Amino acid sequence: MLRIGARTTIGAHSILEGVTTIGVDNRIGHYAVIGGAPQDMKYQGEPTELLIGDRNTIREFTTIHTGTVQDKGVTRIGSDNWIMSYVHIGHDCLVGNHTIFSSNAQIAGHVTVGDWAILGGMCGVHQFIQIGTHAMLGGASALVQDLPPFVIAAGDKAVPHGINVEGLKRRGFSPSQISHLRQAYKILYK
């Protein structure tokens, strides 16, 4: 069953399938595959679903899969996300609101991405990882452990490099709040 909200546009040659609910005012680019069966060998065709919120931009050649019954059976994408071309969002992922997935960002199954997080181009995220609110993963990075809120990580095996100061400023965090977050980072990582 497919439900598509008002004013959602879908590009040519895109495939929307499975039990998928898409909210209002979304823009889906050409050749996207939305609601495909999970890439999980345990999946045997059980009914699972994909829920996508409102006002998301999902660009060309993106793949977003439904969940698996072994978990909650749902993949969820929040609202106001910017998902660039060739992104893959695996089964059972939970993506918050206002995130940015740069081109070719790939996240495996069971990944949680917090609000306002940014994933750089060509990054890879291992399964069962949590990426915190306002965190940033650098381009071409491989993330194999959780990334705490507010932290920037990068590298072929991503390691923390500080907090996401520019992102926090853009979102209206005060100098005092940023200073406190810097102090917390130093306590945890230095």
TrEMBL record:
UniProt keywords (A-Z) are: Acyltransferase, Lipid A biosynthesis, Lipid biosynthesis, Lipid metabolism, Transferase
Q: Name one GO cellular component term.
A: membrane
Using the record, list the residue span of the signal peptide; answer none if the entry has no such feature: none
Whether Lipid metabolism counts among this entry's keywords is yes
Domain of life, per lineage: Eukaryota
Read off the Pfam families from this record.
Answer: Acetyltransf_11, Hexapep
Q: InterPro entries, alphabetically? A: Acetyltransf_C (IPR029098), Acetyltransf_C_sf (IPR037157), Hexapep (IPR001451), Lipid_A_LpxA (IPR010137), Trimer_LpxA-like_sf (IPR011004)
What biological process terms from GO does the record include?
A: lipid A biosynthetic process
Enumerate the SUPFAM superfamilies for this protein.
Answer: Trimeric LpxA-like enzymes (SSF51161)
List, for all copies, the residue spans of the domain called UDP N-acetylglucosamine O-acyltransferase C-terminal: 146-190
Matching NCBIfam families = lipid_A_lpxA, PRK05289.1
Protein name, per record: UDP N-acetylglucosamine O-acyltransferase C-terminal domain-containing protein
